[in-house]
């Protein structure tokens, strides 16, 4: 039986596969909830990259060369002049913190953030010329990830993930290289993605825009994962996992390429999460595979993680696991409850990129929660329909970033004489 382990200097927590299955005894609710939170804390740590949580049995390989990496972009195409990255050292002033206090769940550790006066003007992305010739091969390394200065060719993010334990970092790096080789990740953006719309419909996840510091904002609503829609469209969990690789590779190689190595602001919307999810074997299985893939292969990419619409019991359970998280990780996590304070916090952290579907709305908290609960329980219905014209874009599932990414994959399908599979 496989197990997943996490280490820190003070404690070791081992999660076995059996922890995630429904238990039929008097303590089933409590134990299942704790097991779920353990899995969710792993997800948080994968986003904030405190540690490598999973080990792989891949054969070791040699780090790939990064020479001529910059030539892998579109030829004769203008890319975004992105002013992003988490390079600001300033902190919120007392007045700013008082005006933008998120909620009682935001601890003092989370109070450190960048000042409002550092907000930048967010330029509208300009679409690359989709008809221009291109080379869409992107290796695992780039000249700005620190691997050229490392004696073993290990990127800095992987060393930081393992707290500078060189042996473990090298093992993780080799496993990552083998993973890329096994799934042809270097060339994935040049391959057609017929299930793009289908995967987008299975679970809400989207780049809604950029935060005031230029970091791309990625929103996920895991409670809305729709297995009925997945089956109806003859898709699988592997298809959805591969789709996420398409999306993340697009993000770091086309949307927000180095230098420097960029980070993102993550928003995890917990609306609709219930014990039913915790007892759903498909839900837990996908969650484990998703966490393993992200934590092993994309460490060190989080600037801030906002957990919104957190259930009333979530904060109490989170406190149980908070001590095993590193200080730097705790500072990246903000837990919010639905309401006006959460809306104010979202506007503070995301600026003009706040999606309307994340705000409480005119109807009030109770009405909004009831509406979201209906959506969460209504399997088989699509969360949104992609727009066909950029003039219809707005922050959210149909942001300009999402529109341009979809057009990119449509163009790749055309070049291979294929079409996008329709969602049914």
Descriptive notes:
Helix 1 packs across helix 10 (314-321). The strands form 2 sheets. This protein has a 5-stranded mixed β-sheet with strand order 3-4-5-6-7, sandwiched between helices. It has helices at residues 28-48, 94-99, 156-161, 166-182, 196-202, 227-232, 237-255, 275-278, 281-297, 314-321, 327-330, 340-350, 364-377, 400-415, and strands at residues 3-7, 12-16, 205-210, 216-220, 264-269, 302-308, 333-335. A hairpin with a 5-residue loop joins strand 3 and strand 4. It contains 14 helices and 7 strands. By secondary structure, it is α/β, with parallel strands linked by helices. It is globular and about 55 Å long.
Output the keywords.
disordered N terminus; 424 residues; alpha/beta; 5-stranded mixed beta sheet
Low-confidence stretches: 1-35, 49-133, 362-378
- Note the gap between the termini: 37 Å
Shape: globular
**% residues in beta strands:** 5-15%
The radius of gyration over CA amounts to 21 Å
Provide the structure class.
Answer: alpha/beta
Biggest β-sheet: count, sense, barrel? 5 strands, mixed
Question: How many DSSP-defined strands?
Answer: 7
Count, helices = 14
Mean pLDDT: 74
Helix content: 25-40%
Widest β-sheet, arrangement of strands:
3-4-5-6-7
Order of helices and strands: EEHHHHHEEHHEHHEHHEHHH
Task: Please write out the topology.
Elements: E1 3-7, E2 12-16, H1 28-48, H2 94-99, H3 156-161, H4 166-182, H5 196-202, E3 205-210, E4 216-220, H6 227-232, H7 237-255, E5 264-269, H8 275-278, H9 281-297, E6 302-308, H10 314-321, H11 327-330, E7 333-335, H12 340-350, H13 364-377, H14 400-415
Parallel strand pairs: 4-5, 5-6, 6-7
Antiparallel strand pairs: 1-2, 3-4
Helix pairs in contact: 1-9, 1-10
């Amino acid at each position: 039986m496989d197990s997943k382990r996490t280490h820190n200097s003070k404690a070791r927590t081992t999660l076995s596969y059996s922890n995630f299955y429904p238990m039929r005894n008097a303590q089933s609710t409590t134990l299942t909830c704790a097991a779920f939170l353990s899995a969710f804390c792993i997800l948080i740590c994968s986003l904030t990259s405190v540690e490598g949580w999973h080990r792989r049995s891949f054969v070791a390989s040699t780090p790939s060369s990064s020479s001529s990496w910059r030539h892998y972009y579109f030829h004769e195409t203008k890319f975004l002049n992105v002013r992003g990255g988490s390079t600001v050292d300033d902190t919120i002033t007392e007045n700013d913190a008082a005006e933008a206090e998120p909620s009682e769940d935001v601890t003092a550790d989370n109070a450190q953030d960048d000042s409002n006066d550092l907000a930048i003007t967010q330029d509208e992305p300009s679409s690359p010329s989709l008809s221009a010739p291109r080379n869409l091969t992107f290796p695992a390394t780039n000249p700005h990830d620190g691997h050229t200065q490392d004696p073993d060719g290990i990127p800095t993010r992987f060393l930081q993930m393992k707290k500078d334990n060189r042996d473990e970092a090298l093992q993780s790096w080799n496993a990552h290289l083998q993973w890329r080789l096994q799934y042809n990740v270097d060339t994935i953006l040049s391959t057609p993605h017929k299930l793009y719309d289908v995967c987008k419909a299975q679970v809400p996840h989207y780049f809604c825009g950029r935060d005031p510091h230029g970091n791309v904002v990625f929103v996920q609503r895991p409670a809305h994962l729709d297995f009925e829609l997945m089956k109806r469209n003859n898709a699988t969990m592997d298809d959805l996992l591969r789709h996420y690789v398409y999306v993340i590779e697009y993000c770091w190689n086309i949307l927000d390429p180095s230098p420097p190595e960029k980070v993102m602001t993550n928003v995890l919307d917990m609306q609709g999460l219930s014990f039913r999810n915790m007892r759903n074997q498909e839900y837990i299985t996908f969650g484990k595979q998703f966490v393993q893939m992200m934590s092993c292969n994309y460490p060190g990419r989080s600037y801030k993680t906002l957990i919104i619409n957190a259930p009333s019991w979530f904060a109490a359970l989170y406190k149980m696991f908070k001590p095993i998280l590193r200080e730097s990780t705790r500072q990246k996590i903000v837990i919010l409850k639905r309401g006006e304070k959460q809306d104010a916090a979202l506007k503070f952290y995301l600026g003009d990129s706040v999606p309307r579907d994340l705000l409480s709305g005119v109807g009030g908290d109770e009405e909004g929660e009831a509406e979201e609960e209906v959506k969460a329980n209504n399997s088989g219905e699509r969360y949104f329909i992609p727009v066909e014209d950029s003039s219809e874009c707005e922050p959210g599932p149909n942001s300009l970033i999402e529109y341009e990414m979809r057009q990119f994959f449509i163009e790749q399908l055309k070049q291979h004489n294929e079409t996008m599979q329709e969602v049914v």
